[in-house]
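Give me the 3D structure for ribonuclease H.
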Amino acid sequence: MCSNDGIKIQTSSDGEGEDSVEGDEMENVDEEYPLICLFPMITEEGIPAELRETVGKEVWDMTGKEVGLMKGVEPVKVTVKTNAIFPQTPQYHMAQDTLMKVAQLIDEFVKQGVLKEMLSSPCNSPIMGLIKPSGKVRIVQDLRKINDIIVKCCPVVPNPAVIMFQVPCDAEWFSVIDLSQAFFSVPLHEDSQFLFCFKFLDRVYSWCRIPQGFSESPSIFNQILKKDLEELELPFESTLVQYIDDLLIAAKTESGCTADTIALLNHLGRNGHKVSPSKLQFCQKKVKYLGHQIEKGSRKIMKERITSVLQMSPPKTRREVRKFLGMVGYCRQWIPNFSTLAKPLLKLTQKDALDQIELKGDEMDAFIELKECMCRAPALGMPDYTKPFT
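Predicted structure for ribonuclease H (390 residues):
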């Protein structure tokens, strides 16, 4: 089937298909769909006034498409299991408007060295285009089959609940920094790039940086950034909390928070990272971090998370049960006797459980009670390590 724009969609009987292009249509993508629609420029006014002259411009991702490259980092090499069979999963069907936006983003990534075109590869893992509420597009790759054939390292990503205990109880001023497209700042070894190939518009592409969807990316990036931050000295010795690519500065004074945030941003810029100004929470008394609302001496569950849980209907599949338990489980510190309450639902996630389910009796009671616990969730105090624990 061919559209008026020359995009040919080949759909298989099972609903999956390949998107390809006839002739030189790929060359005209940027002319028909201007990049300004995808990547609105952030003006200097979008950066807090205190940071415009004190922080190097190289750290800012002003367009939403700029990718960093960490300095002094060895390319990551991936080990494949012995006798592994390389997956060749066909490309999923993609709506035409999404397809064109993805094409623009791919072109940008090629220009920045994040992607490269290849002649062929024994692997293919399909991509999808996720359109955000802002209108920006994000490429999501289904790497589940690749993750199954690689040798995994011991995960070293910290538990969010545990690292929150690092926040001092007397900290009153906070800054939150979200690194932009962080994984793409870590180079991928040339010998491993073929593993992450995908076919798009009759061309084969591979990542030159560690991709999102790769099971090892969070651990790899977390460790590399942790080592990088060990070289940083904050002038006011504020507490720096790191969870993968999300950073929190916690300080006792406004001046200390400002100075240490500036020091951190300049360090990140010098070392090849990018920061989104639109996501920066600079020197505030109340911030959002890892699904928590943090202020002096306490943390709460964000209202958005509570609302999301309350709006969930009773699950009808094993997968939906896991999703619900994941949502409430993240907040288990606020739910007394969580393991006991969740036990009837946990049984529904076991391997021998049915895929299609209907909550009854204890299962429905557990579902309702966990929701009610989210509504009653109190503010939790930050631990004071100067006092004895009893």
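The first helix runs from residue 29 to 32. Let me know if you want a second pass.
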